[in-house]
Write a structure and sequence with these properties.
This protein has about 230 residues and is an alpha/beta fold. The protein has two domains: about 120 residues, Rossmann fold, CATH 3.40.50.2300; about 100 residues, Winged helix-like DNA-binding domain superfamily/Winged helix DNA-binding domain (Arc Repressor Mutant, subunit A), CATH 1.10.10. It is about 40% helix and about 20% strand. It has eight helices and twelve strands. It has a five-stranded parallel beta sheet with strand order 2-1-3-4-5, with helices on both faces. Helix 1 links the parallel strand 1 and strand 2. Helix 6 packs across helix 8. The model has no long low-confidence stretch (mean pLDDT about 90).
Amino acid sequence: MSIIENILVIDDEIQIRRLLKISLENSGFKVFEAENAKSGLQELANSRPSLVLLDLGLPDEDGLSLLKKIRDFSDVPVIILSVRNSEKDIITALDSGADDYITKPFNTGELLARIRTCLRHSQPEQKDPVFTNGNVTVDFSTREVKKKGQIVKLTSTEFSLFSLFIRNSGKVLTHNYFLKEIWGKPFSDETQYLRVYVAQLRKKLEDNPSRPKMFITESGVGYRMIVIE
């Protein structure tokens, strides 16, 4: 990694902070720590991190409240690390501005992969209008989609949905987010619309639609698009 990225860990458990500090520094990151929401905001201003790892169970303020404060002035990527594992908690955090959500206990390798994905997609967008994912390419200047070199015809809605996936590739997006972005607020509860269109994208773009590798279901929460090398 040519540029050392700063990561801020906001967690009241000293054992978790120590584990993360060792793991992240061994992977080339510089780590800053905060044990509560107040010091987290101060450290965020001081260290100007490239990414924040945020626990929800802070002693002085709920992590969701802190997340909303962060989003008032910063678009820094935030990954939630929490023992809360209900669908409602995950959806609420993602809809409140979190970029990803990982439940404790977590796999360090997976966490590092999620961190790299968030950092990669927080960089300024390239001017190249062509996006490639595995054997699928999209030319945004012509709205042309190809799979293995062959043109794939997408409907206007399918293309809009695919574009939304691309803009947020690697990130978990909730059902509610998709529905409001593509169909508008009146359709925010019509999850069957989304299921139908995701199935169509899988049918047209996945090698094996019944075992998708690109458009991944996050059970009870939404979907994530994986970038295939």
